Amino acid sequence: MGFRCGIVGLPNVGKSTIFNALTAAGIESANYPFCTIEPNVGMVPVPDERLDRLAAMVKTRNKVNAKMEFVDIAGLVSGASKGEGLGNQFLGHIRQVDAIAHVIRCFTDDNIVHVGGSIDPLRDREVINTELILADLETVRKRLDKSATQIKSGLKGAKEQQAFLQALEKHLDQGQPARTMELDDTGRELMKELFLLSAKPVLYVANVSEAEINRGNPWVEELKQAAATERASVVMISGSIEEELSHLEESERRDFLDDLGQSEPGLHRLIRNGYELLGLITYFTVGEKETRAWTIPQGRKAPQAAGVIHTDFERGFIRAEVISCEDLIACGSEAKAREKGLLRLEGKDYVVLDGDCMNFRFNV
Predict the structure, then answer these.
(1) I need a surface site. Which of 188, 238, 244, 343 has the fewest CB within 10 A?
(2) What are phi and psi of 176, to 5 degrees?
(3) Over the stretch 344-359, which tens digit does the pLDDT of each residue have?
(4) Is the domain of 107 the same as that of 227?
(5) Structural domain of residue 261, as residue ranges?
(6) Structural domain tally of the chain?
(7) What is the DSSP string of 71-125?
(8) Is the pTM of this model over 0.85?
(9) 341 inside domain
(10) Which residues of the chain are modeled with pLDDT < 50?
(11) In this predicted model, what pLDDT tens digit does every residue of 26-44 receive, in sequence order?
(12) DSSP letter for each residue of 254-296
């Protein structure tokens, strides 16, 4: 479905290292600014223990995870909104993603130069937020000029649009990202039309040292407090650990994580949080030939869910046979679930829940 999460950050914060481990893409990661110029793109499977258990239960021949698309975007510097560094390219690439994973350096290493001269997560967060807000202010002011012309011509709704744009301009001018502005239905529609950079949902990724992956550090706590002011979350990851994990065989990874006191790779947390950030849920189709996880936005109804598989399924939708994955796994088979009456038929108005196992009936 093309859900894209852009990985951004100042140069040398570990952004490309984390992307490299995410995708095992082998991209260049070096200790100088603007190593990443064109964005690197990778499709990453979403880890889901439920899918693994369902596939094992039916002894499926082909297990297919849901996927997220991650985009490694060039490092940004102060002044990007005015074209400094790779600013114009950076901002252009951000416009094409659905959400932002903002990597912030929360570790010390004398061998890796920090573009700001020191470690300061709050300053780094502010640099990128400010550049996005400045770019958005330019967009809003251009739209305000247009609305003034529309009011003179008597266009219906132009005054209401101007009032919203003026409120939005004031909000941005106070250093607040567009995503923190309270919106009514009209405001939400207008916001969609503006395609503002600071309106995109953000997840902060605190890149810490290997020694601090379990306990964190004061920089991480500062970042969490700052993120809370915009209702954003923070995921703590050690880029060096994830890079090492990416080079290990599957059998060696578990021992390595056990030695570190970690239950799973940090990248699994990042992927899941990115998935949640975009408001996505998973439903499953289960069979011996294939067991697959499908991605849909939360709140979608059964015909729309069917349309993710094939547009014909949505057009000819009759009903869906549904059971929660927990109930199906507990029963051990679809036949036993059917005997217990746990499989139910749902119609066109059914809102799909995360973890539903679904079998669609439709007319061709």
Answers:
(1) 188
(2) -100, 130
(3) 999 999 999 999 999 9
(4) yes
(5) 4-46+65-119+201-277
(6) 3
(7) EEPPP--TTGGGT-TTHHHHHHHHTT-SEEEEEEE----TTS--TTSS--HHHHH
(8) no
(9) yes
(10) 25-37, 80-81, 83-87
(11) 333 333 344 444 567 888 8
(12) HHHHHHHT-SS-HHHHHHHHHHHHTTEEEEEE--SS-EEEEEE
